[in-house]
Design goal:
Largest sheet of chain B: 5 strands, mixed
Strand content of chain A: 5-15%
Radius of gyration of chain B: 13 Å
Shape of chain A: globular
CATH superfamily of chain B: Beta-grasp domain
CATH class of chain B: Alpha Beta
Number of strands of chain B: 5
CATH class of the largest domain in chain A: Alpha Beta
Strand order of the largest sheet of chain A: 2-1-6-3-4-5
Structural class of chain B: alpha+beta
CATH superfamily of the largest domain in chain A: Aldehyde ferredoxin oxidoreductase, N-terminal domain
Strand order of the largest sheet of chain B: 2-1-5-3-4
CATH topology of the largest domain in chain A: Aldehyde Ferredoxin Oxidoreductase,  A, domain 1
Number of domains of chain A: 3
CATH topology of chain B: Ubiquitin-like (UB roll)
Number of helices of chain A: 24
Helix content of chain A: 40-55%
Structural class of chain A: alpha+beta
Strand content of chain B: 25-35%
Oligomer: heterodimer
Number of domains of chain B: 1
Chain lengths: 598, 98
């Protein structure tokens, strides 16, 4: 079988049945696996126009061919479904150990379809798969769910994936959590699982993933490990400070979104920096499966301790809400993990609410809790809880910033693309990253093509962040390579140190066939176009490839990126051209043929 | 808040008038991540006119090859970039990832 374990586990919740199907290996290789194969299967099996929270939607939890192998960071799994937040295809990625455990149990993919009559969870112990009653788990937060299930399962080495109360409440910012602190965070995938009345999937496997060429793999793994260790970012920066080290560098560049993107400079950045997190709150590192980078943090603030916070979380609860209190940010992060909320959408929605409050759209009398004023630490903690439980005004916030701002008639205050909250980089001062935001297939996202790497960090080469020259092609190549990495089962962070040729080598050894760097990029292009076609069928158009009005029209008011707006109008037509799309952003017949997507 | 607190610069006019009169320039040096170990976070430092970032690195004993990102007034610059009075120099070892 060579790197795949060969079985798709299909769980029909309406009929209460479990079925094993053989994996179509040829199709799997065409899309690599993970994000690619999941997107293909979703496109084949559902109508893109359906309601994301209806029983007709399906959830594909997929591993890649390198998941569960000896490859460094080979522990990822992805969740592919239609998103209730964006209406686009969703593919959320998570690390930890759950993905390898699923493969060790003998499954490449788990499919959830239909809707259970009552809350259930899925128990997988090799070939013993059961749909079990979850009435006693419904309403529980993530840690309690995990503890309860580990005890019931009777094996502390089992791995638990679950949703929190936010997923049960169908909040479009609900995440899927695994091993307590890891999240398939974005696009509301947790709400889709909740809509099926599924609380959790516990898995334990005794098998092992077999690959084609062990000797070759040993050599390629050694080479990849060396490159990862010797690279400054993966060998030094991320291991020492985690992702939070970015707070200062992005602030120094004047692109740290502050107070809902009103400016790009936060005067108190030092208080919420990676340096401060490491010095005052770090308990230990918390690495994923076979990861030499170990960017994961485990922190403690007063009585709350656990995984995180990441840079993104520190930003959205920090500068974006005008907060300089690291303890409050750590607590808000912890609550997101407990209630199963996507930290980016949760924090950015509070930031949007604070601006709506500041501008007088949200009236004080509507707010049945702490005042939504910039810098109010009590507000970020309390409103996170109430988003998690959909309580009072929290229920309104739990719909995300777009639906919130739209309800006041001012959707332009929502800093979203395709209704998904933008992450922690203001594209007005990073032009290539902006075109990537506008064209990301899952809406506002930084991990669909991380142009911060060349435009800010200077990797693999330094680009002028204000220049438009060549940026559409850079965006395309980064998006394609990222799609392939996500499909492979490896972590995107390896791409600071590895190139397309390295991933090709690892896949060659795993599959036992020659794979070139070009094959890897072509597969990525295929995946990207496949996702695009899904979105077009779901009703999205060129008009959705845009940025919030503020970023296109209001120049940054201060700091090193002062005076800049994002020049999307100039970049987008060129991006469509390098993609092989027509002027309306539709993949041409020729392009589809070239990629085998007819 | 803003320009002044973050050390991004002085008005152009001030730079021209003052620098013409001085032999030395004053530069605001900001260090990040491991560069802070046994050094400092931020410091105002004086250098002869026409000094570059290289002279700053020499003065604070940071080997050039350890610098991953060098910004002057928030813009990425080479080590040989000539500094002006009132400039802010931000220095980072390899960091990053989002």
């Amino acid at each position: 079988m060579n790197a795949y374990v060969g079985t798709v586990l299909r769980i029909n919740l309406t009929e209460n049945t479990v079925k094993c199907e053989p994996l179509d290996v040829e199709t799997a290789k065409k899309y690599i696996g993970g994000r690619g194969l999941g997107s293909y299967l979703l496109s084949q099996e559902i109508d893109p126009e359906i309601d994301a929270l209806s029983p007709e939607n399906k959830v594909f939890i997929t591993t890649g061919p390198l998941t569960g192998t000896t490859v460094p960071t080979g522990g990822r799994y992805m969740v592919i479904t239609k998103s209730p937040l964006t209406g686009t295809i969703a593919s959320s990625n998570s690390g930890g150990f759950w993905g390898p455990e699923l493969k060790n149990a003998g499954y490449d993919i788990v499919v959830l379809e239909g809707k259970a009559e009552k809350p259930v969870y899925i128990s997988i112990k090799d070939d013993q798969v059961e749909i079990k009653d979850a009435a006693h788990l419904w309403g529980m937060k993530v840690n309690e769910t995990t503890d309860t299930l580990l005890e019931e399962f009777g094996d502390p080495k089992a791995r638990v994936l679950c949703i929190g109360p936010a997923g049960e409440n169908l909040s479009p910012m609900a995440a899927i959590m695994n091993e307590r602190y890891r999240a398939a965070g974005r696009s509301g995938v947790g709400a889709v699982v909740g809509s099926k009345n599924v609380k959790a999937i516990v898995v334990r496997g005794s098998g092992k993933v077999k690959i084609a060429d062990e000797e070759k793999m040993k050599a390629f793994v050694k080479d990849a490990m060396k490159k990862i260790r010797e690279n400054g970012v993966t060998g030094q920066g991320l291991p020492t400070y985690g992702t939070a080290v970015l707070v200062n560098i992005i602030n120094e560049s004047g692109v740290l979104p502050t107070r809902n993107f009103q400016t790009g400079v936060f005067a108190d950045a030092e208080a919420i920096s990676g340096e401060t997190l490491s010095a005052e709150y770090l308990v230990k590192k918390d690495p994923c499966y076979r990861c030499p980078i170990a960017c994961g943090r485990y922190t403690k603030a007063d009585e709350m301790e656990g995984g995180g916070p990441e840079y993104e979380t520190i930003w959205c609860y920090g500068s974006d809400c005008g907060i300089n209190d690291m303890k409050a940010i750590i607590k808000a992060n912890h609550l997101c993990n407990e209630y199963g909320l996507d930290t980016i959408t949760a924090g950015a929605t509070i930031a949007c609410a604070m601006e709506l409050f500041e501008k007088g759209y949200i009236k004080p009398e509507e707010v049945d809790g702490p005042e939504l004023t910039w810098g109010n630490a009590e507000a970020i903690i309390e409103w996170t809880k109430r988003m998690g439980t959909s309580e009072g005004f929290g229920a309104k916030l739990a719909q995300g910033s777009y639906r919130l701002a739209e309800s006041y008639g001012v959707p332009e205050y929502s800093m979203t693309v395709k209704k998904q909250e933008l992450p922690a980089y203001d594209p007005r001062g990073i032009q290539g990253h902006g075109v990537q935001y506008a064209t990301s297939n899952r809406g506002g996202c930084h991990v669909r093509g991380y142009l911060i790497s060349p435009e800010i960090l200077g990797l693999p080469e330094k680009l002028d962040r204000f220049s438009l020259e060549g940026k559409p092609l850079w965006a395309k190549i980064f998006q394609d390579l990222t799609a392939s990495i996500d499909a492979s089962g490896m972590c995107l962070f390896t791409s600071f140190a590895l190139g397309a040729g390295d991933y090709a080598d690892l896949l060659s050894a795993a599959w036992g066939v020659e794979v070139t760097a070009e094959d890897v990029l072509t597969a990525g292009d295929r995946i990207y176009n496949l996702e695009r076609i899904f979105n077009l069928k779901a009703g999205l158009t060129k008009a959705d490839d845009t940025l919030p009005k503020r970023l296109l029209e209001e120049p940054l008011p201060e700091g090193p990126s002062k005076g800049w707006v994002h020049k999307l109008d100039e970049l987008l037509p060129k991006y469509y051209e390098v993609r092989g799309w027509d002027a309306d952003g539709v993949p041409t017949a020729e392009k589809r043929k070239e990629l085998g997507l007819e | 808040m803003g320009d002044h607190l973050n050390g991004y610069g002085t008005s152009e006019q001030f730079v021209l008038n003052e620098a013409a009169l001085k032999q030395n320039i004053t530069v605001f040096v900001k260090l990040f991540a491991t560069f802070r170990d046994k050094r400092f976070m931020t410091r105002h430092m004086e250098f002869p006119v026409r000094s570059t970032v290289r002279e700053v690195l020499q003065a604070i004993h940071i080997p050039e090859e350890e610098v991953a990102i060098c910004m002057v007034n928030g813009h990425s610059k080479e080590i040989g970039h000539e500094l002006a009075d009132g400039d802010t120099v931000s220095l980072f070892p390899p960091v990053g990832g989002g």
